[in-house]
Automatic annotation (TrEMBL):
<dbReference type="InterPro" id="IPR006104">
    <property type="entry name" value="Glyco_hydro_2_N"/>
</dbReference>
<dbReference type="InterPro" id="IPR006103">
    <property type="entry name" value="Glyco_hydro_2_cat"/>
</dbReference>
<dbReference type="InterPro" id="IPR017853">
    <property type="entry name" value="GH"/>
</dbReference>
<comment type="similarity">
    <text>Belongs to the glycosyl hydrolase 2 family.</text>
</comment>
<dbReference type="InterPro" id="IPR051913">
    <property type="entry name" value="GH2_Domain-Containing"/>
</dbReference>
<keyword id="KW-0378">Hydrolase</keyword>
<dbReference type="InterPro" id="IPR013783">
    <property type="entry name" value="Ig-like_fold"/>
</dbReference>
<keyword id="KW-0326">Glycosidase</keyword>
<feature type="domain" description="Glycoside hydrolase family 2 immunoglobulin-like beta-sandwich">
    <location>
        <begin position="185"/>
        <end position="291"/>
    </location>
</feature>
<dbReference type="Pfam" id="PF02837">
    <property type="entry name" value="Glyco_hydro_2_N"/>
</dbReference>
<dbReference type="GO" id="GO:0016787">
    <property type="term" value="F:hydrolase activity"/>
</dbReference>
<dbReference type="InterPro" id="IPR006102">
    <property type="entry name" value="Ig-like_GH2"/>
</dbReference>
<feature type="domain" description="Glycosyl hydrolases family 2 sugar binding">
    <location>
        <begin position="22"/>
        <end position="179"/>
    </location>
</feature>
<dbReference type="InterPro" id="IPR008979">
    <property type="entry name" value="Galactose-bd-like_sf"/>
</dbReference>
<feature type="domain" description="Glycoside hydrolase family 2 catalytic">
    <location>
        <begin position="295"/>
        <end position="584"/>
    </location>
</feature>
<protein>
    <submittedName>
        <fullName>Glycoside hydrolase family 2 protein</fullName>
    </submittedName>
</protein>
<dbReference type="Pfam" id="PF00703">
    <property type="entry name" value="Glyco_hydro_2"/>
</dbReference>
Length: 588
């Protein structure tokens, strides 16, 4: 069941307005290997080179883009002519980019409208001063990418060929582009924080353009399944305002709240309406879930009850579109198949996914670990780039109830000597505390799988093939948490100077079983039959579940990805093993 104001194509389902224009589709496109575009004024409508067309939001490396060239090009240009109707004159026109990799510079009608760095966070430019109304406007975007390991790149290769678990790079626009026409005075953002123990939702508003305005009124209306819950009103007198609202409601009996969980993903609809002199000037539709993630006595709790997490690692790649989902339906299909296999959560690995993915996880009750794309070197430049982008991403995903854990670091990527290097340890601590400053309510995992520093959960990666070997290795918890023995034979739980403090323990990577093939790889020995696959899967999954102090797991992985063929599904989402067999083992 969708939320009240769901729009299939709207790129930002948690902050919906009616007056918008989707700019996905055909754009002019050009490579600029000699870096002459700016000097030759390609941003001028008359000067843009003719020739290539690209289908946005797919990158030129993909078949879905209409180009399909995998060779790295460091500089690319886009152009689209857009007619802005006369009737929106007097409003502000915002140009939104959901994701551009890596460094973008935008011109509108030959004038610079804005610049942005970072491949995974969404960003926007107010292009109102540069527009002409009732006629075509020339929107041009220059995008610079690199093969630098100092920029957050996740699973994108930084050499000319794929290797190990690194795949074809993604350069340029890879998420939706769209225009929105808004009032000067408007609701800019709303940070929504549920408090199930007090039956309240806290709303932190950021308002834009309200200075020197009188008689403003901001009305917030909350519904659940079409039934009115609460209406609150305030008179904005400053850009930042906070209000709390009760979410108790009468539902066929005593006053109660409806909580969000995988078994019952209740979502409240919420509207924010800004009036000036009783005239409506802005209206935003959103939603929230009442749920609580906490940690007590070595367990992760959801809504104050123990949560056993059955996660699966998801890298979010498709054969013809790579990191860009081919459609909303493709996102829904993945979530549905994951649920069909008996998993209650997804570790979205090395990627910040399309917001519509998180929307459907919210709707369907699928838990999500949100993970930052890694750098692969440690120096001042890498630290600066990583920190800037992560601090943009966390607020952008904050309101999604499905997101229950932040994972800024994985397997010492970008922090290769964290086991003993103080500077790298301090970096992870800084990111941990900065994340907690924005969001003190979700667990943060620092260095998932390997040497942890400050971390709310102790996570371990172990691709051992035998359940018996796993049981023997993990039978003594103290041996693992005190670094007396290593996990996976060569990595320890904690970096030097750090120690176990009673955190929940989760096996956050294991399995990776691949069928025999000469064209790709998996973890450990490849299997030659469905029966052999199922037996190994059952053995290791059962062993993890048999260890009482382990409170969850994450299997590697949902689908094959390019040369990595250890998915439960093929790249085109065909099951290798009957899904009901996987489900039965997971739920046993």
């Amino acid at each position: 069941m969708t939320t009240k104001f769901y729009n299939r194509d709207y790129p930002r389902p948690q902050f919906v307005r009616k007056d918008w224009l989707n700019l996905n589709g055909e754009w002019d496109f050009s490579f600029d290997d000699h870096q002459v575009g700016e000097s030759e004024h390609w941003y001028d409508q008359a000067e843009f080179p003719k020739g290539l067309k690209i289908k946005v939001p797919f990158t030129y490396e993909t078949q879905a883009s209409g180009i399909g060239i995998e060779t790295f090009h460091p500089l690319v240009w886009y152009r689209k002519l857009v007619t802005i109707p006369q009737e929106v004159k007097g409003k502000r026109t915002i140009l939104h980019f959901q994701g551009v990799d890596y460094r973008a510079k935008c011109w509108v009608n030959g004038r610079v409208a804005g610049e942005q760095e970072g491949g995974y966070a969404a960003f926007s430019f107010d292009i109102t001063p540069y527009l002409t109304y009732g006629s075509e406007n020339n929107i041009v975007l220059e995008v610079a990418d690199s093969q630098s390991a100092m920029q957050p790149r996740g699973k994108q290769r930084w050499v000319d060929e794929n290797f190990e678990c690194f795949y074809v790079q993604s350069t340029g626009i890879w998420k939706s582009v769209w225009l929105e026409h808004v009032s000067e005075a408007r609701v800019e953002t709303v940070k929504m924080t549920p408090d199930i123990d007090r039956h309240m939702i806290r709303l932190d508003f950021q308002l834009n353009g309200i200075e020197d305005r009188n008689n403003l009124r901001l009305e917030t209306r909350i519904e659940l399944k079409g039934q009115h819950v609460q209406t609150i009103s305030l008179s904005p007198d400053r850009p930042w305002m906070t209000v709390e609202a009760s979410v108790k409601h009468e539902a066929g009996g005593p006053w109660k709240q409806s909580l969000w969980s995988p078994d019952s993903p209740n979502l409240y609809d919420i509207e924010f309406v800004l009036y000036e002199n009783e005239k409506e000037i802005d209206r935003v539709h959103s939603y929230f879930g009442m749920r609580k993630i906490s940690i007590e006595n070595g367990q992760v709790l959801l809504n104050n009850a123990p949560l056993y997490q059955r996660l699966i690692l998801d890298q979010g790649y498709w054969p013809d579109s790579h990191l860009t989902p081919p459609s909303v339906e493709a996102l829904i299909e993945d979530i549905d198949k994951i649920a069909e296999m008996g998993y209650n959560g997804i570790r979205k690995h090395m990627k910040l996914e399309d917001p519509r993915f998180l929307y459907w996880c919210d709707v369907k009750g699928m838990l999500v670990w949100s993970e930052m794309a890694a750098t692969f070197e440690f120096n001042d430049e890498a630290v600066s780039r990583f920190t800037k982008e992560w601090l943009e991403i966390v607020p952008q995903q904050y309101n999604h109830p499905s997101v229950i854990t932040w994972v800024p670091f994985n397997e010492s990527w970008g922090i290769p000597t964290i086991a003993h290097e103080v500077a790298q340890q301090q970096f992870t601590q800084s990111i941990y505390h900065l994340t907690k400053a924005i969001d003190p309510y979700r667990p943060v995992i620092t260095n998932d799988g390997w040497e942890h520093t400050v971390s709310d959960i102790l996570t371990i990666h172990d691709y051992v093939e035998s359940g018996d070997v796993f049981l023997e290795r993990y039978q003594d918890k103290d041996m693992i948490v005190t670094n007396k023995i290593s996990s996976n034979r060569w990595k320890f739980a904690f970096a030097e100077g750090y120690e176990y403090k009673g955190q929940p323990i989760i096996i956050s990577e294991f399995g990776g079983i691949a069928f025999q093939s000469d064209e790709g790889w998996g973890y450990g020995n490849q299997v030659d039959s469905v029966e052999a696959f199922v037996e190994r899967f059952r053995s290791i999954t059962g062993a993890i579940k048999a260890i009482p102090y382990i409170s969850g797991y994450c299997y590697t992985q949902v689908t094959d990805v390019q040369q990595e063929i250890n998915g439960l599904l093929t790249e085109d989402r065909q099951p290798k093993v009957p899904l009901e067999v996987i489900r039965k083992i997971n739920l046993a």
